[in-house]
Give the backbone structure.
Amino acid sequence: MHIYTIKRLLNIQEYKVPEIISATLKEIHIRLEAYERKKAICSGCGKVHEVGYHSSKEVIVEDLPISQRRVYLHVRKRRYRCPGDGRIRTEDIAWLKLKARVTNRFAEYVNRLTAITTNQEAGWFLGLNDEVVYRIDKEILEEKAKEKLDPPPAGVHISVDEVSYRKYHRYLTNVIDVDRKLVVWNDKGRKAEVLDRYYEGIGEDNCKKIESVALDGAKHYISSTNQYAVNALIVYDRFHVIQKLNRAVDTVRKQELRKAKADKNEELIELINCRQRFILLKNKRNLRETEVGYLKRLCEINQPIYPRLWRGLKRASSRFILMTT
């Protein structure tokens, strides 16, 4: 294949193709050289260096295939002593991934493939180790996430929650735009400082425009929201409200059970023992006839459990349903 044709196919600006090193039915190895006019950009400070040349090294990077043959580019990278920190830095080439031995367009190709299949199958198709595919895909996803989250999208009605992404209590804080039903921001950790970064990212004016924030009742999220979203109505999500009320009911049940055992009240023990505990927490519409009888008798002989907490639970549930709908 003619060298000029190869150069046109590659379409890499400021680089020439002095030779085709080898070409087989499976692979093509091509040497690339930068034109003399091309300036070296430091990978440390990002500035152009013309003095302080130290050395150069040849790297082999993979590019998009040509005629179903894998393409490897042999590129010489220059190294300069950076005046900023005095360290020896390798030049940053715009069309190459800094930490991976692939071109940007090949990395995008990998990312598109992993969007429709697994890393293992993508690696089999490309002839790459699935760990290599994972690293390339991860870097692309991180870059795209940074583009979308810098600055963070602001919302009027948002929801904040934590999610475990790894064992040993590794958490992410997610911010969801309720109107758009999208996760618009997240970061590692579940402390107040993590959520602070979101509010600081959207700015003071956008914080004042937030009308409601749905939370799970975590104190660190509440304190951060009170500090930044000063005009927002804090709404506790239904799951955690019901969870806390159910725990309160169960706590009172245990207290009354201990009292009943001390007083040797066999009837009350039978009504509030562990076998009957879920009757207290059931929706009234789901109760069987015998369970309704249990609650009616419990209402007659024990006021602390029923009906006060039961009715309080129902009223709180009803109010919260109205708030969320």
